[in-house]
Amino acid sequence: MPRDHSINSVLVIGSGPIVIGQACEFDYSGTQACRVLKAEGIRVILVNSNPATIMTDPEFADATYIEPITPHFLEEIIKKERPDAILATLGGQTALNAAMALAENGILDKYRTRLIGADVEAIKRGENRELFRAIVEKVGGESARSVVCHTMAECFAAVETLNYPVVVRPSFTMGGLGSGIAFNPEDLELIAGAGLRHSPTTEVLLEESILGWKEYELEVMRDHNDNVVIVCSIENIDPMGVHTGDSITVAPALTLTDVEFQNLRNLAIEIIREVGVATGGCNIQFAINPDNGRIVVIEMNPRVSRSSALASKATGFPIAKIATKLAVGYSLDEITNDITKVTPASFEPTLDYIVVKVPRFAFEKFPEADPRLTTTMKSVGEAMALGRSFPEALQKALRSLEKKGAGFTWPDRPSESEITQLLNDMKIPTEARLGQVQRALHFGADIESVYAATKIDRWFLQQISTINAMATEIKSAAELERKLLFKAKRMGFSDQQIATLRESSEGDVRKLRERLDLHPVYKTVDTCAAEFEAFTPYHYSTYEEESEIAPRTKPAVIILGSGPNRIGQGIEFDYSCVHASFTLSAAGYETIMVNCNPETVSTDYDTSDRLYFEPLTLEDVLEVIRAEKAAGPVLGVIAQLGGQTPLGLAQGLKDAGVTILGTSPEAINLAEDRGEFGRVLQENNLRAPEWGVASSFEQAREAAARIGYPVLVRPSFVLGGRGMEIVYDENTLRSYIERATEISPEKPALIDRFLDDAVEVDVDALFDGEELYLAGVMEHIEEAGIHSGDSACVLPSISLSSEMLAEIRNATEKIARGVGVRGLINIQFAVAENVLYVLEANPRASRTVPYVSKSTGVQLAKSAARIAVGESIATLRSEKLIPENDGGKRTGISVKEAVLPWNRFRRIDGQGVDSVLGPEMRSTGEVMGIATTFGSSYAKSQIAAFGPLPTSGSVFISLTDRDKRAALESCRLLSQLGFTIYATSGTYNYLLEHGITTTMVRKHSEKSSDQALGGELSAVDVISQGLVQLVINTPQGSGTRHDGWLIRTAAVQRSLACITTIPGFKAAVAGIQALREDSLTVRSLQSWLA
User: Fold this and answer.
1) Edge to edge, what strands does the sheet with 925-931 contain?
2) CA torsion angle for 347, 348, 352, 353 (degrees, to 10)?
3) Can you say whether the dihedral through the CA atoms of 963, 828, 895, 177 is positive or negative?
4) Cis? peptide before 1063, omega within 30° of 0
5) H or E stretch including 9?
6) Alpha helix locations (H) across 708-772?
């Protein structure tokens, strides 16, 4: 049956901000959906609150709404746009939950629209734990014994029959939020309590423990003719107990017998039929008892899942694209395979290679967090690699993580007690576990001992032992002959690993390979194990004889992607890389993308002319460049759009004779080198806060004494404020220098005077060597000292004078010219007492590029790519890519707000980690509010960031002495608006002196019997008991006191907005006023920018 012609307009619901458990894989899915629908001639209406995504670019939809994904805003959009259908199965759990709310509130019926992809009843059957259990039982499957609970009393009663340990799974959450394994009543109180709070239906499933079982997933698709395909099988290397998003996974599954696979396949087909997903994809998870083969169905996602992006990239079978076509009426046999051009989508993909995905964690950002991996997902990104064997794919994936210590190492054999310690440590799953397993096996531990400690399948342990044996052979060989080197490379060993084993250098190993003419060949992902010709150049490297790279004649530009997402380097950089690819393709260049992140749009095979799924290391990138130079002309490499990852390769590439397009490595280093950058500022009469550099504590003490405390201390060459701290005294400075192991004369610590009470400003601009285009001046809403990635900010600036804006423009141009920028530059300024200070300059695409682009209607990354290949701003203006005036079109006020993952991380004692903001970035994503007034746009941003501002009720306020005066007017306004204010003694007395009545509560540390301090209720009690709807708590300057930490963690656990700065407090009051006076309307980006 061809397309359903009753569908002429579709509302696509996006997934909102990037959060742990729901990341940019859903931007990939949503972008695919928008492209398919537009190609079908269907009007596309898109709603998503996240400005960093590619899907929210105006070119992907006919009407793009950057609005909160809530029933109220969705109804407003539906009322305005009247879509024929709503597609919610590609936007993760956020979109699915929103669609269900629309159905339950009668909005679908009210506006005569319907869900496509999966209907309401199918979603209920897949998501409701009890209904799904009944379906599994009906088709002959088995679920783990479980009990659905809605209160803690029911949870404790359920454990009587299930026994400890029990698995806690909340309903309707993403990434296992609120889930965990309870080994005792204390654990159950903590985990199930959190689960009930996080579940939108206040429902948790308590399940018998299947810890140590093997976990598998199947990606399944079905059409309205009942054609079903199993796209991919995926196996977790970690056994049950670690969330699948946190486990190293492999595709296809490698330890299933044929019989076991057929059993899983049959169950999956019966389940998708019975659930009733008739026009789309789903993900079904299974567990198998390794001792007796018992199969348990864990759960099903009746939507495109997080694993769908991985399965799509692993197989070349674009699940989201096909799911969208199925949703609008096509059947699988009517959809042609893009890669072969002859087989239909009803042909299941066949793999003649192995795919390994490795998660990327960010525990270094939360040093007090428990590092144990559980059923609550904690990874912030992932890397994927393809190889002809498991060892090759695994080692390539590990080096793709770009994290020190991630790859395998082979130190000298330790003592017996150290082996025992390793075996003991690996019993607890952490991100270090695979390395512990590999070293233990290298040191002589037997496979059975490691299996007993970890329950990792013996086959995988045998493969790791084979890698270790190869390492021993490399180390002990008299010389590296071609045959041995070829064998090592086939097992995924990098030049760096081989050099370390041989006590040589990476450069020496590279020269040896060149002398021996030993280079990788590139194979094609073809969906059919070479049965049919592949027309899409989607390549991976291996060491064999035959390469599959086709010759070409057009000049090529190689774009280096951003690698695995992590805090500080997220989807925003993928956005810039994708835009570069689109614009350079349109300009007549062959675009070649190199990246290793399966979640992204950049690793979609139809984003660029050629795609290399390879690690972003110097060795791997040089080999891609070598292969492409043999295929045709190469103009050069763009390394400034993918964040710090490709930027770190630029100098090494240039040293190897590669042309770097755009800003040169020398210019990049000029901005990073504090002395050189200081010279540029001095020559241009620009001010910076007093600064110094130090590679020892003595140097740091001397610099800090000269500058004066407080000082901002950070390592050089970092992204996301990694390791950045505000230091108030000498003892803290000593502690910082002792912890900062990376500090050296080549990479010194940078010490700056900390500008307290300054307004920080972020600027994005383009420079071509002659002319500057100032794209946006973003004013931070948070005070100085909060990382720009974590601070809410507003565009255009709302408090800077026209004279100051002119001074900022002048300073930006001087720096761009002085550094030698050719493309994008991001500069951070601070304004203190009407004096402009330069904080730092980044001569590359910044994380704010998508936000500025959406706010102003100017696609900055496209222009930067064109400048990189030699075009001028004047030329781009003539093509209308850049407007005549700075700042683009501004008809609204845009507020960007950060989304932080505090609810994912707990300390070992079960308490939350502190949620105070600082100079080191911790947010995983962002949202945007756009409106005609600041208050309305700020209020929208808070709703979208899961912390809606209350319009009435109670507020808890606790202020440090230095903040009381600045907060007085905001407190007075809240009181006038009718809010009840709870305050601790100091704040209570100060507000009372100024005529504001509040209710006093005691600090948590004060005795409950002291009525003068607020009686029985403590500050933590009023939050924990749900008596307040907003928390204002400014921390102590020189470190957060225990009371403040308890207040903030209590707010996070109650999902309350917790504001820790005075500018944030003022913005919140403006937002509350706007909410009470204004109904908050919706408007498409296209309308704003018209």
Assistant:
1) 835-842, 823-832, 759-767, 772-780, 793-795, 893-899, 925-931
2) 140
3) negative
4) no
5) strand 9-13
6) 730-739
Residues 807 and 208: their CA atoms lie apart, in Å, by 65
Interior angle at CA 836, CA 830 and CA 837, nearest 5 = 60
The single residue listed with the structure tokens 């002589």 is 444
Containing H/E element for 63? strand 63-65
Peptide bond into 359 cis (omega under 30): no
Q: Hey, is 686 helix, strand or coil?
A: coil
Q: How far apart are CA 650 and CA 631, in angstroms?
A: 22
Pull the structure tokens for residue 882: 């850049």
Q: Are strands 772-780 and 660-661 parallel, antiparallel or unpaired?
A: unpaired
What is the spatial distance between Cα 590 and Cα 162, in angstroms, rounded to a whole number?
Answer: 60
Report how far apart the first and last C-alpha atoms of the chain are (Å, whole number).
39
What are the phi and psi torsion angles at 413 (to 5°)? -65, 130
Least confident of 342-346, 849-853, 1010-1014: 1010-1014
- Tokens representing residue 953 in the block: 């009720």
The predicted-structure confidence for 214-242, as pLDDT tens digits, reads as follows 999 999 999 999 999 999 999 999 999 89
Cis peptide before 715 (omega within 30 of 0): no
Going by pLDDT thresholds of 50, 70 and 90, the confidence category of residue 750 is confident
DSSP annotation of 551 reads P
Among residues 335, 327, 337, 336, which one has the least CA distance to residue 304? 327
To which residue do tokens 């000269």 refer?
706
Indicate whether this model's pTM tops 0.85: yes
Q: Is 186 helix (H, G, I), strand (E, B) or coil?
A: helix
Q: What is the mean pLDDT of residues 413-421?
A: 85
Strands 556-560 and 590-595: parallel
pLDDT score of 1036 more than 70: no
- Give whichever of 552-561, 717-726, 1000-1009, 1039-1048 has the largest mean pLDDT: 552-561
Helix (H, G, I), strand (E, B), or coil: what is residue 196?
helix
Q: Rounded to 5 degrees, what are φ and ψ at 699?
A: -65, -40
Eight-state DSSP code of residue 19:
B
- 3 state SS of 286: strand
The three-class DSSP label of residue 151 is coil
Residues 392/490, Cβ–Cβ less than 8 Å: yes
**Could you tell me which residues are beta bridge partners of residue 896?**
793, 928
Which candidate, 706, 683, 746, 785, places its Cα nearest to that of 1038?
Answer: 785
Q: In Å, what is the CA distance from 34 to each residue of 8, 37, 295, 314? A: 13, 5, 38, 22
Nearest to 970 by CA among 984, 960, 981: 981
* pLDDT above 90 for 320: yes
Q: Tell me what pLDDT residue 611 has.
A: 98
Assign 314 a pLDDT band (cuts: 50, 70, 90): very high
pLDDT of residue 679: 92
Closest by CA position to 406, among listed 364, 353, 446: 364
Half-sphere exposure at residue 346, Cβ-oriented, CA atoms within 13 angstroms: 11
Q: How far apart are CA 245 and CA 241, in angstroms?
A: 12
Measured CA to CA, the distance from residue 40 to residue 976 in angstroms comes to 55
Per-residue pLDDT at 1004: 74
3-class DSSP string for 588-655: CCEEEEEECCCCCCCCCCCCCCEEEECCCCHHHHHHHHHHHHHHCCEEEEECCCCCHHHHCCHHHHHH
Q: What is the chain's mean pLDDT, rounded?
A: 91
Determine the Cα–Cα distance for residues 356 and 217; give it in Å rounded to an integer: 14
Question: Tokens 């500022």 map to which residue?
Answer: 681
425 in helix, strand or coil? helix
**Locate tokens 């210019």: which residue?**
667
Strand partners, 1002: 1018
Contact 609, 536 (CB under 8 A): no
Give the Å distances, CA to CA, from 176 to 241, 270, 374, 376, 906.
Answer: 11, 25, 9, 4, 14
- CA–CA gap between residue 497 and residue 182 (Å, rounded): 41
